[in-house]
Design goal:
139 residues, alpha+beta, five-stranded antiparallel β-sheet, 5 helices
Length: 139
Amino acid sequence: MIILLTLIISISIITSIFAIIEILVLHKNYPYYKKTYKALVNLEYVFDHESSGLCYYRNKHVKAIGWNPYSPNDDDEIILFADGSIKLLGGDRYIHAGLFILEPYSMYWGYKIRKILKENKGVDEKVLIRNKKINEIIS
């Protein structure tokens, strides 16, 4: 019984240490979670294309003008990777979809952003606006 209790306590301590380390490492990305989510909800970024399992979401104004694939500025895109990881707006900022994500804030925003990305994928922008207005009327 004592061995089992010791094992449970040590696993809890190790898990807590990993969670604290993740919070310390990921806290600098927190402002970009909400920025990316709001850009998707407000339809500023829409589905552009899919390539090799990556779904690209681009700014609708840049997309209308024409996007240069050789542009070194990739801060202006959101990418959904095949494993569920997300590249956020603002440079090299990511929400990883790993097995050992113990940090609840990243898990929460990752879930919200993945959900909105899946809803917006392949849907025409006008249809999204219409559906949003219908949901506002119903609510």
